[in-house]
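Hey team,

Filing this mostly as a record. A colleague (T.K.) asked me to run one chain through the structure pipeline before their review meeting, and I want the input and output archived in the tracker in case anyone asks later how it was produced. No errors, nothing strange. Just documentation.

Input sequence:
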Amino acid sequence: MRRGAKRKTTHKAEEEPSKKPAPEQPIDEPAPEEPINEPAEENHVEVKKKKGKAEPKASNKAADGRKPKRAKVSKSEMETEYFEEKRNLEDLWQQVFPVGTEWDQLDMVYQYKWNFSNLEEAFEEGGKLYNNKVYLFGCTEPQLVSFQGHAKVTMIPVVVAVVSPFPPSDKIGIKSVQRETEEILPMKQMKMDWVPYIPLEKRESQVERLKKSQIFILRCTQRRAGLKQLKIERVKKYEYCLPYFYHPFQEDETEQSTVVPILFPIDPQPVFCEFDWELDELEEFTDKLIEEEELSADQKEPFKDFVKEKVREAKKANREAREARKKALAEMSEQTKTAYESMKFYKFYPVASPNAPDVSGVQSSFINRYYGKAHQIM
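Output structure:
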């Protein structure tokens, strides 16, 4: 053998010096379609096509006799990932709009992974809300709580459940200490309404089935992105909203109160105070304001006239409220009366979990000035 000649060991016939056979001399073998000598790359692919196998074209590295690289298998293809199964009512508390929460505080509400498993369990057999028609609305309570060794004011989400055969109200109250007057508006005017809640397992259900829903939530369709187009006064109204409720069998605060908020508009600073027409004597009350330099002496008589007018308005409002309640009771059916008498309010706080602050020490049964106190804290 000549020096430098390549020696092949794959077949006995290859021990002879490498020669390409003439094209007109076929190789005499029992399987002509499988030649002993390695053909050129294009001939190899052509033979495979005759056999009906769609194999990829051999790479240059394979033709050179080098071993091709093995395909890398990613870790995700080798390991099976398991996801925690979602609970049927897992996102219920998040779907409820937190009424009265400032828009720029909403992100703070959802910064923790709050656990409302107590709300979910209440709908199970044996729970307080099981097999009942329930109306849910949300709110937030800023409280100083500790988490991971740090104490700070936190916006705690709260869900109120009203067990009732009909919506407790279709109105929203707008009231705050900064506002002189109180407004009672239709919910839809503030883009709010009661809508059916669809559990996760029924999200693909047809609309007809939703009519049988037993869970209704208060939703708001006002988008945060659209707030820039609203006037400041309109935006602030959302921050002062309170879910409204009127119980015909109970006198509300308006009917019982003898206190009148006074906002006397004078320069350079208005006088803000509260006057109780049963406990306060107007002359003495005014002199005290002058003594404390909150009211100038030359404004004494105009101030007294202003207070008298506000007291007349308040007494008239109380009288009209009592008359309206009596009329509503007289026209109310026995079925509706029974429904009001059996109506229950439940207030749900998030339960303790390692992912959120413990709020067990700051819970209160008070809901708001319209609903009063909850029958039970959950």
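Quick notes for T.K.: The chain is about 25% helix and 20% strand. The longest strand covers residues 134-147.
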